Amino acid sequence: MDDMIQMDDTKQYIIIKFDSEQYGINIEYIDNIVRLQAITRVPHTQSYFVGIINLRGEIIPVMSMRAKFNLPDKETTNASRILILKMEGNAKIGILVDEVKEVVTLSEESIEKTSVESSDIKAYLSGVGKYNDTLISILNIGAVIADIDNE
Amino acid sequence: MDISQYLDIFIDETKEHLQTLNDQVLILEAEPENIDTVNEIFRAAHSLKGMAGTMGFKRMQKLTHNMENVFSEVRNGKLNVNADMVDIVFKCLDAIEGYLNSIIETSDEGTEDNDELIGLLEAAMEQVSSEPAPAAAPAAEEKAEEKAAPAESGDKRKFLSIPIADFEKNAMTEAKEKGMNVYGATVYIQESCLLKAARAFLVFKNLDGKGEIIKSVPTVQDIEDERFEFDFSMFIITDKSIDEIKHAIESVSEIEEAVIEAYEIPDAVQETVAADDSPAGEEEKKTEAKGKAKTESSDKKAHAKGSKPVVNRSVRVDIEKLDDLMNQVSELIIAKNGLVSVAGDSASQDQSFNEQIEYLERITTSLHESVMKVRMVPIESVVNRFPRMIRDLSKKLNKEMELIMTGEDTELDRTVIDEIGDPLMHMLRNAADHGLESTIDRLKIGKPQVGTIRLDAYQDGNNVTIEVTDDGGGVDVEKIKRKAVEKGNLTQEQADALTDKEAIDLLFAPAFSTAEKISDVSGRGVGLDVVKNKIEGLGGDVEVSTKLGEGTTFIVRLPLTLAIIQALMVDVGGEKYALPLNSIVTVEEIQDEDIKYVHTKEVINLRGSVIPLVRLSDVLDIEPSEATEDVETGENGLIVVIVKKGDKQAGLVIDKLLGQQEIVIKPLGKYIRVPKMISGATILGNGEIALIIDSNVLV
Q1: Does the pLDDT at position A151 exceed 60?
Q2: pTM above the 0.90 mark?
Q3: Rounded to an integer, what distance in angstroms lies between the CA atom of residue B285 and that of residue B280?
Q4: Contact B689 A49 (CB under 8 A)
């Protein structure tokens, strides 16, 4: 496997899938991936937060990637997952995604810093990577989370 | 030597000593003759000097050394305490605090030499030689002698001055007849010794096998409790030689010297003869003995008064470790709740299983209580700096005032204690500056010249109440309204429509001050709103009651603890919520027809008081499900939880009561926006999350 050869300029990404598009999240941010579980609604909060979950005694807010990216709503399925991201200061946040596909290793060169012309997600992309003939949009998680604070 | 590891201890202990000094100097200001206080100050100053020296803080050491010298003279009666001196000492304490703060921040004492203060202290010392306080002169000399004895070559045989009771005399005579030796000994411990009691104990232990100690001064008990200076005396009956005994004593480390010699038993005849021969000497002995007895008894008095217990059976623990422990106990309670709910669900009602569950419940509850108790700190640690503050304010504002504090031993959780200091300080400053009238005005209206500020703390159920009261002019409601209109906070009409209570609440509005002129004590209008925010942030509330001309009381209510609370679990539209038990008054069942309308708002009349209704399903944005409709229409009634905030009440409409439970409060995480009415979340036994409703926001 190519991820055995960890070069300085390669990074591992978790690939998540919305409809037909694939997005990559730098694995350094990932604390955990959990199956969908009971989510407790929080009243009067940001519209894209679906609520809070109990992760082994810790309460973690969960936001819906679809809602955040203004994608059309979709029922959760058996494939739905919550990615627990660990941000600075050990603060955790969960993101609800349709499906987690795999972990890939991409080298810096294979990621093009050009922006893709598509919807609102654009602002949160740091580039597009190519992996086995498929295109993967690399999410700038820092920007996504920073955007929450601004509201 | 690497001293950095001792820095924390040094800082803690310096703080303690500074606090002691502040307290005691305040007492001294009121009672300049109080010798206990002088001793206490001397000891604290001495310890400070020693510690600063060990840590290599030379400037701090120099200042404390000079301070110690002054008090040494006061103790010897050569110097009288006066107002100027107290002022200088307070300035020194501030300077030491300055050093300490610098040390806390940079691990260095800084470069401030405080030469001026040292000069003042030295000037105070000069008075000793130029004008020895005449009134206290005789007593002074006597004491000076006593003090000088160990240092100079004077008579070190202190045991000579110990009064001997008849039975002791008999024992000695008997022993001598049997050919035993009777020795008198006075043991001097090095002044740098930190564990005097332990050294003294070793001395006694070494002597144990060698002879019998028939008397010691101070008593063995007092020595064990470290209630002695740097020497103690005793009589020993032994068959060993003087050298052997002397060696046994001096083999203990940190013993400076043991003065020991054969003791001549003073018999009755001898005594009268001696009285004839040298009346002066005998008298001296007597007075000295008396002096000793006096200091001894006063020592005891001081002890009984509850001054710091000498032997402190306590351990310093890092607060982080306690927080960890607390978290683990929280986890344990959640796990226990999980077990309880499994036990409740399972059909197999095994008797012994349930018994064990109950047992576990009892243990976790008492474990929780114990951990909470460990985290509880008396508010004393916060309020003990206030007397000094009021004294300074009194001078600064030129108003006479006194602070009376009660309930300093009331305990609060550490996390609350850490936050409550500033708001309390602010309220006290407010009372001193705005509350109390000037001394002249007070005299004019026939009030006592000295204004009184009270700080009363007491526990009230699951809350702690702290009241700050002044007997000043009270809050002028009309003045507040006028001010509010002037500042544009309100229109004239709005102001006229305000009730007195609403007007007083304006005091807590941001940037609102009624003080005519702005002083650097208070009056800038940043303050009471900050106070209110802080207290509400701690889950408490603050209220004012005032009577024009008679005074004002600020009432602060705080929860005992923040982490684990008792709550009533309720169901609203199929969602579970927790209501903190301490704000609940009663739970009522209300019929639909009992609901009345005031200004289109729903209210109920409950035993004479009109209480507004709050439908939780509305404020929590819960879509009414069919189930809830059923409950309401089916029983033709509502379940209403009556909650209170101060003396205001509200009725929260819920669907179902689920029972009382101990819950652990958890934050909701950093990113999610939480409405004000939600104070946190808790994890239930089955892993579900319930939000905690802060009913204070809804009342």
Answers
A1: no
A2: no
A3: 9
A4: no
CATH architecture label of B564-698: Beta Barrel (2.40)
DSSP letters for B335-382: HHHHHHHHHHH-S---HHHHHHHHHHHHHHHHHHHHHHHHHEEETHHH
Among residues B504, B545, B520, which one has the least CA distance to residue B512?
B504
Model pLDDT, residue B562: 62
> What's the topology of domain B380-559?
Heat Shock Protein 90 (3.30.565)
Nearest residue of B to residue A85 by CA position?
B671
Bridge partners, A59 (sequence order)? A54
Nearest to A67 by CA among A26, A100, A96: A96
Instruction: Please tell me the predicted confidence (pLDDT) of residue B221.
Output: 74
B416 vs B470, higher pLDDT: B470
* CB–CB contacts below 8 A, A to B: 77
- The pLDDT of residue B633 is 45
Domains of chain A, earliest start first: 11-149 (2.40.50.180)
Which of A42, A60, A87 is nearest residue B674 as measured by Cβ atoms? A42
pLDDT band for position B287 (cuts 50, 70, 90): very low
Whether pLDDT at B350 is above 90: no
Asked if A50 reaches chain B (Cβ–Cβ under 8 Å), the answer is: no
Find the DSSP H helices in B229-278.
242-250, 268-277
Best mutation target among A34, A41, A59 (most B Cβ atoms within 10 Å) is A59
Residues 6+ positions from A143 with CB-CB distance below 8 Å: A123, A124, A126
Beta-bridge mates of residue B641: B587, B652
Considering only alpha carbons, which residue of chain A is nearest residue B623? A43
The answer to whether residue B618 neighbours chain A at the CB level (below 8 Å) is no
B222: exposed, middle or buried (Cβ count in 10 Å: 0-12, 13-18, 19+): buried
The kind and range of the H/E element at B84 are: helix B83-106
**Is the domain covering B319-378 a CATH 1.10.287 domain?**
yes
Please give the average per-residue pLDDT across B32-56, as a whole number: 82
Domains of chain B, by residue range, sit at 4-145, 155-265, 319-378, 380-559, 564-698
- Report whether pLDDT(B321) > 80: yes
Residue B571: the pLDDT is 92
> What are the backbone dihedrals phi and psi of residue B357, each rounded to the nearest 5 degrees, phi first?
-60, -45
Give the pLDDT score at B594: 85
- Who among A38, A44, A60 is closest to B688 (CB)? A38
Topology of the domain covering B4-145: Four Helix Bundle (Hemerythrin (Met), subunit A) (1.20.120)
C-alpha distance from residue B547 to each of A41, B431, B472, B506 (Å) = 47, 14, 9, 16
pLDDT of residue B299: 42
- Quick one: pLDDT at residue B385? 84
pLDDT above 90 coverage of chain B, percent: 7
Over the Cα atoms of chain A, what is R_g? 15
> Which DSSP letter does residue B623 get?
P
CATH class of B155-265: alpha beta
* Angstrom distance (rounded) from CA A4 to CA B52: 59
Cβ–Cβ contact B691 with A under 8 A: yes
Q: Which residues of B are catalytic?
A: 46, 68, 430
Q: Which region among A3-17, B104-118, B297-311 has the lowest average model confidence (pLDDT)?
A: B297-311
pLDDT over 80 at B536, yes or no: no
Please tell me which of the candidates B621, B669, B688 has its beta carbon nearest to residue A92: B669
Which amino acid does the sequence have at B517? K
Q: Can you tell me the ipTM of this complex? A: 0.85
